[in-house]
Amino acid sequence: MLLSILIIQILANIVFRTIVIEARTVLSEYTHRPDVKHFESELDRTTGYWSPSTSSIDWCERNYVVTQYIAEFWNCLSSLVFCLLSGILFFQALYYRIENRFLLLCLSYMFVGLGSAFFHGTLTYLGQMADELSMVYSMIIWWFILFRMDKFNKIRNKMYRLDLGIVFAIFYGILWTYMHSLKTFIVIFQVHFGLMVFGAILKSIFIYRQTQHRTRYIMCLIIIYVTLLIPALTSWILDQELCERMNTTGGFNPQLHAWWHVFCAIDSHVGLVCTEAMRLLSIKYNLHKIKHADSSTESFKPEDHLHIRFYFGLPYVDYSHTIQLKQQ
To answer: Which residues are annotated as a binding site?
Structure first.
């Protein structure tokens, strides 16, 4: 235990010092970027409060149109939907005393929203890092929860095994932070994040196929999650492909990248609720096995242990039903 902590501290110090040294060079190099990716024939050079732009990409929304203090107003505003929806789930988790892992996941989605708002509001290198790195961090946390779905080992009893997962997650996050902050990959980042989402979907389907998770609620949530990716990706692609046409004189720009944010925020909400539901069933199934260890006739019926409620079209795990069952 002490050795693992010492190793983590040494690695963290080495990586931190390296990142600080390299960051100075990176920030000075990216003050006036010649390689900004944009989606019109000419880069939008409108100046505002945060000018000059230092990010490696400039989206289709025209800069500083609504106010001189926000570069991409609608993209910035729509990013806050992440904060709203994850904030609701965060307070629900606090109220029902759900596991800390879900509090952390909710917080990570809130940081995704704040980072995205910072990026689109300023179009700065620092804002871009806050946006893209927080997206990867949230996926790392989600993966950790999915791959520990059926684990119930106490920290004090299985510290070594737990440390391996946490150390790997931290190391992967630090490594990606270092690599991405030096070069600000665009295509590589997008492919990397897409693979993380695809892997999480496959893992969720695998968990659903287990007997204790096979309910219509889980299936429905997975289907909704995958289905929402279609309008989200469509908005994201069309915003880039039709950018020139939408921004020409007399054209209409429906701010499709802002709609991408809205769809992704709702999708993240659905994915988080689905993960909460699967974890609840895992806990209930574990308790059922302990309670009926001497009986093979008592079968576990997952549909009796999970209830999903919809409010304003958004799903939520009904933990109040679980509390009522405990009190009976």
So the answer is: 58-59, 61, 63, 72, 120, 257, 261
